[in-house]
Amino acid sequence: MGLFQKVGDKLSHEAMKYKIVFLPDYRVDLTYDPTPIKAGEAYCRIWLADVNLQKDVEWFKKRYPVVHAAVRFHHGNEVVTIPYLAKPGHLRSLGTGDVGTVIQSNYPITPLFPFNQGLVELQAGLFSMVSDDPVAKFIKVMGRFSELLPVPELSSVVKLAEPIYQGIEELLDMGDRQLELVYQQAFTDATGGGSNLLRSGYFAVILAEEHQFNSDTLCVVNDCLQMGSPGNTKVFLKDSQPLTGYSYMLFRIEKQTQQDWESLTKIKELVDLAQDGVSNGKYEEVKATLIPAIRTTIMRSPDIAKSDRKPMIIKIEETLKEEGLQSAKGQRRSLYSIMQRPLPNIDAGTEAELASLERLFAE
User: Fold this and answer.
1) Is the domain of 116 the same as that of 52?
2) For residue range 291-344, what is the model confidence (pLDDT) as tens digits?
3) Which of 235, 256, 277 is the C-terminal boundary of a domain?
4) Does 273 lie in the same domain as 198?
5) Which of 44, 54, 158, 186 has its CA at a distance of 20 to 30 angstroms from the CA of residue 72?
6) Secondary element (H or E) of residue 190
7) Residue 315 belongs to what domain range?
């Protein structure tokens, strides 16, 4: 039985009281689009923005905090679990005079991944560990390994995810730990209904009874959870103060309309090779060999949103065609610059070919 399953069983018996608050966009200092995300049309990244531990000044002297998170989502046709561990080196105490200990995190706990189907599930636990526990050194090592996973081309490191996840769970299960706060949630796409739609913005999990404070006063300033004047305006920017006296975790969901194109090394290498061939006057050979390889690689890539696959192929092929017509050595275009081009018109034959290819890889 995994650590999070044990935690879930414990919660079902002990009924830990906590508040979950999705902060509306007018309670955040930054401007963003809170529209729910449709499957296949965007890229997401989840951040651990801010954490607070309500403990006395002996915290960090005898015990230290550890945040363990796991996010599950579809990567291609498989469901992957991306683990994250905030090791002690990531945690910063603001001083022994503070009422609580703030952990200024703002670390990505997932890569920028395409949300193409299914659910996005988040589990996060805030634990405390004994300072002289020998497991602490191994936790630091596993924390460093977890930093390798939040990269845009997840397919290049996805084989590391499961061993790291298992290693983190085993270490925390072996160590002298105490559960301070835990959160579990599954997010759906824009058509899922309910209040758990996947969308840009901030949400907080606070260890508190519902009646202990007014949730309308919560706000986010500089990626920190604070309390300020309630209302639909930005008045809270003038009078907000840090939320103290409670343990909490603040998360941020980021939405992007484009992937980090230059990080897609397999596709980038094929496109570079094709441009070199065209530049050397071998456009027909490129068209016969490399363009089919580029099409297949893009359609099979789990790192690209469904809505981007056909436009990406069309833009790359149009670029290669233009370079072939020029019949001269030119400067190689980056994959990023190619993807910034407007989508050209395509003939019915090409449209039919791509539609057929799309159906083939959807099966």
Assistant:
1) yes
2) 999 999 999 999 999 999 999 999 999 999 988 877 666 678 999 999 999 999
3) 256
4) no
5) 54
6) none
7) 261-362
The tokens for 247 are 């343990």
Residues 195 and 312 in one domain: no
Three-class SS state of 221: strand
Residue 307's H or E segment, with its range, is helix 306-326
Alpha-carbon distance of 111 to 293, in angstroms, equals 26
CA distances, 332 to each of 135, 258, 265, 269, 290 (Å): 50, 21, 16, 12, 16
3-state per-residue secondary structure call for 192-207: CCCCCECCCEEEEEEC
- DSSP summary character for residue 38: P
Q: Which one has a higher pLDDT value, 338 or 140?
A: 338
Mean pLDDT confidence for 65-76: 89
Using CA atoms, how far residue 287 sits from 178, 282, 324, 341, in Å, is 61, 9, 10, 20
Instruction: Give a three-class secondary structure readout of 255-297.
Output: EECCCCHHHCHHHHHHHHHHHHHHHCCCHHHHHHHHHHHHHHH
User: Can you name the residues that pair with 44 across neighbouring β-strands?
Assistant: 113, 255
Count of Cβ atoms closer than 10 Å to residue 356 Cβ: 9
> Do residue 224 and residue 276 come from a single domain?
no
CB-CB contact of 217 with 230 (8 Å): yes
124/48 Cα distance (integer angstroms): 10
Residue 150's DSSP bridge partners are none
Nearest to 107 by CA among 87, 77, 134: 87
pLDDT for residue 100? 45
Name residue 148's amino acid. Answer: L
CA–CA gap between residue 65 and residue 248 (Å, rounded)? 12
Residues 6+ apart with CB under 8 A from 134: none
Coil/strand/helix, residue 243? coil
User: Is 0.85 surpassed by the pTM of this model?
Assistant: yes
CA distance 197 to 36: 6
